[in-house]
Amino acid sequence: MIVLVLLGGGAAVVSNIVNPSENFIIVKVRVPELSALAKRGKISFDKNCAQCHGANGSGTDKGPPFVHTTYNPGHHGDDAFYRAAKKGVQSHHWPFGNMPAQPQVSDRQLAGVIKYVRELQQANGIYYKAHRM
Fold first, then answer.
1. Where are the domains of the chain?
2. Burial letters for 50-83: b for 16+ Cβ neighbours within 10 Å, e otherwise?
3. Segments in 19-106 forming alpha helices (H)
4. What's the CA gap between 110 and 29, in Å, rounded?
5. Under CATH, domain 25-123 is a member of which superfamily?
6. What average pLDDT does this structure show over 41-70?
7. Is the pTM for the entire model greater than 0.70?
8. What integer pLDDT is reported at residue 94 of this predicted model?
9. Where in 5-131 does DSSP place strands (E)?
10. Is residue 129 classed as helix, strand or coil in its secondary structure?
11. Closest CA to 51 of 94, 99, 15
């Protein structure tokens, strides 16, 4: 019985490597001309966020894409990004695990990161959509 469970788990891992589920999505991102604040935010994002959330918020196998409807302002407002960076967040939409707090990112830098993400989202057709449960 244990061998069957282990084989089944191994098959699931191989399946995700060969055919990743939509939970491991990496999106193609169109980068617009950025505002001055968003340009500064991109620098902070690249230094502190891109390792997990991908270049331009496209996602990686370590973290979800921010250029995704899940992160539209109606579902994850700016304050949600702020709280996640300041306090960390438990995994709830994706199977990447919990996100640790990012205390090295100042409030000013975080304002730029959020502006950068929002401008990327808008350039890729992601706008406010009321969240319904």
1. 25-123
2. bebbbebbbbbeebbbbbbeebbbeebeeeebbe
3. 36-48, 50-53, 78-87
4. 21
5. Cytochrome c-like domain (1.10.760.10)
6. 96
7. yes
8. 86
9. none
10. coil
11. 99
Identity of residue 44: S
pLDDT at 133: 73
Q: Which amino acid is at 15?
A: S
- Copy the structure tokens of residue 81: 């990004």
User: Which two tokens mark 27?
Assistant: 């999106």
Chain centroid to Cα 23, Å, comes to: 11
**With 70 as the cut, is the pLDDT of residue 111 above it?**
yes
The pLDDT assigned to 24 comes to 66
Distance CA 25, CA 17 (A): 12
Sign of the torsion formed by the C-alpha atoms of 2, 16, 72 and 56: positive
The rounded distance, in Å, linking the Cα atoms of 11 and 83 is 37
Closest CA to 131 of 76, 53, 89: 76
The answer to whether the CB of 80 falls within 8 A of the CB of 12 is no
Q: What is the band of 76 on the pLDDT scale with cuts at 50, 70, 90?
A: very high
Q: What does the block give as tokens for 3? A: 């061998």
